[in-house]
């Protein structure tokens, strides 16, 4: 039987059986594909860490079907959590709260839990049909590119028991993570939901003062120095036209966006299609994404997957603007290049 199945009644039934047997299932969300496991099962959680080769200190986000289910997982539920949930759930916002005493084994050695309600029909049907809170990091090997299609999942995790194929993810980048255990809500991971939208509800939002060292407990995933990385070496550069290519491993590729500094070549007619070109006498593959930060983010991982599939050894990335709207994209590219 195929491991990649449509999310129809039979596919969801098979997924529920696997989850209730303390194993794992990959499923789509609006952000990226997740590798889901029963958040109450130590055996299932261990399988997530094993398949992903994920460090034990890196916690998991728990996905639930309702605000009531989220509250049951927490020891404290501040008023601002109600306001954020009412505005943004279901959606790409993860809240970090004090963890309920009965919930153990879903992440690093701390007393918090990261929780959200995904805005994807398949994810919600799976949550409702299983009746389980699902701990679900991205369905890929640790540190590698997050998957936005079922095909990405299978290539990265060939041993996953079942993948519900819900098509490409619409946001294409992980959720924004906001810590509500601090005096002022603190951004732990920039993501699909903008800071501007969050401030409309919370007012001030604090940013983390320093990076969290690998090996140290942390309240959220996405805080490791290296993450979201393709097989190719990623180099961020202020101007892809002027980058010194003499010492770069070939073949090389360029990842840039419409209207930015571009080498002298014929642009593809459609952003994100990629094209083989000649620059400085050497063939390069070029990916031109949208100049809109949300649209760029939606195709970023897919573009990195395409470049890996093309067999490039180096990816020169045009640095995006240093503005708040590009914060999530800059975060992903910086970690991919670490």
TrEMBL record:
Catalytic activity, reaction form: L-threonine + hydrogencarbonate + ATP = L-threonylcarbamoyladenylate + diphosphate + H2O
Any Gene Ontology CC annotation: cytoplasm
Pfam family, one: Sua5_yciO_yrdC
GO MF, one example: double-stranded RNA binding
GO BP annotations listed: regulation of translational fidelity; tRNA processing
Subcellular location: Cytoplasm
SUPFAM superfamilies to which the protein is assigned, alphabetical: YrdC/RibB (SSF55821)
YrdC-like domain mapped to chain residues: 9-193
Binding site for L-threonine: 31, 116, 136, 175
Predominant cellular place of this UniProt entry's protein: cytoplasm
Positions of ATP binding: 54, 58, 63, 112, 138, 146, 189, 228
E.C. numbers: 2.7.7.87
Keyword flag Nucleotidyltransferase: yes
First-tier enzyme category under EC: transferase
Keywords from the named record: ATP-binding, Cytoplasm, Nucleotide-binding, Nucleotidyltransferase, Transferase, tRNA processing
Family stated for the protein in its record: Belongs to the SUA5 family.
Function, in words: Required for the formation of a threonylcarbamoyl group on adenosine at position 37 (t(6)A37) in tRNAs that read codons beginning with adenine.
Protein name: Threonylcarbamoyl-AMP synthase
Organism encoding this protein: Actinoplanes octamycinicus
């Amino acid at each position: 039987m195929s491991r990649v199945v449509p999310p129809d009644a039979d596919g969801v039934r098979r997924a529920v059986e696997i989850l209730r047997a303390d194993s794992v299932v990959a499923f789509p969300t609006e952000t990226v594909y997740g590798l889901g496991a029963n958040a109450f099962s130590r055996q299932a959680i261990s399988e997530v860490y094993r398949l992903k080769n994920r460090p034990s200190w890196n916690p998991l986000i728990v996905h639930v079907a309702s605000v009531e289910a989220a509250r049951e997982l927490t020891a404290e539920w501040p008023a601002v959590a109600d306001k954020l949930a009412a505005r943004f759930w279901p959606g790409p916002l993860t809240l970090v709260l004090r963890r309920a005493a009965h919930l153990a084994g879903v992440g690093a050695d701390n007393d918090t839990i990261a929780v959200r309600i995904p805005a994807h029909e398949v994810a919600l049907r799976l949550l409702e049909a299983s009746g389980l809170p699902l701990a679900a990091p991205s369905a890929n090997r640790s540190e590698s590119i997050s998957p936005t299609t079922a095909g990405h999942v299978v290539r990265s995790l060939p041993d996953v028991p079942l993948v519900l194929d819900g098509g490409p993810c619409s946001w294409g980048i992980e959720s924004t993570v906001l810590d509500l255990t601090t005096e002022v809500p603190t951004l732990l991971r920039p993501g699909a939901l903008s800071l501007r939208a969050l401030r409309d509800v919370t007012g001030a939002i604090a940013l983390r003062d320093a990076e969290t060292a690998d090996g140290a407990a942390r309240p959220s995933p996405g805080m490791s120095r290296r993450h979201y990385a393709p097989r190719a070496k990623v180099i961020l550069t202020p101007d892809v036209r002027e980058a010194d290519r003499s010492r770069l491993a070939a073949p090389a590729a360029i990842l840039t966006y419409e209207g930015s500094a571009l080498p002298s070549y014929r642009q593809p007619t459609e952003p994100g299609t990629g094209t083989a070109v000649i620059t400085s006498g050497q063939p390069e593959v070029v990916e031109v994404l949208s100049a809109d930060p949300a649209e760029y983010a939606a195709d970023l991982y897919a573009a990195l997957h395409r470049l890996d599939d093309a067999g490039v050894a180096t990816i020169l990335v045009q640095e995006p603007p240093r503005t708040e709207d590009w914060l999530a994209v800059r975060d992903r590219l910086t970690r991919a290049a670490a």
